[in-house]
Amino acid sequence: MYISPGNITRALNGIIDKFPEVVSACDYHNLTPLHHAIASTKHNMDGASFDLLQRGSSNYIVLSAILSNSGWSDILEVVKAKTDGLRVEDEESGLMPFMMAAVEDNEDENGFDEDENEVIHEEVGIESDLGLTMVHELLCMKPTL
Hints:
The chain is mostly helical. The protein has one domain. The protein has eight helices and no strands. Helix 6 (about 95-110) runs antiparallel to helix 8 (about 130-140). The protein starts with 8 loop residues before the first helix and ends with a helix. About 30% of the residues are buried.
């Protein structure tokens, strides 16, 4: 079967119908297919395929985006696609996405003991500083949190 470039909706739909978990599967960097579509192929992907990935993705994708250590612009696009994901709590830590983004920032701002904070960072899975700006932006997107 030949699939013309940019027109993968039918093939993608067939894969998702048979293996729905593939939409939420994370790679080594905690990125899902929607993350990859946003970061590298959205401008080349037909709208129907992108919408199919977006609809099939769970709200946990927001947590995955933060854990992926992606740049803010990529994380922002994922959050815009799944705003309700801002209400999802991480199963292991119980933290919401804005809290996870704040964990790393607190180390520098509040002078927490680095060894104690490293344990928190390892539990949550955050390796890079996402910053107070990101925390603020996430809260502004869902002020009812």
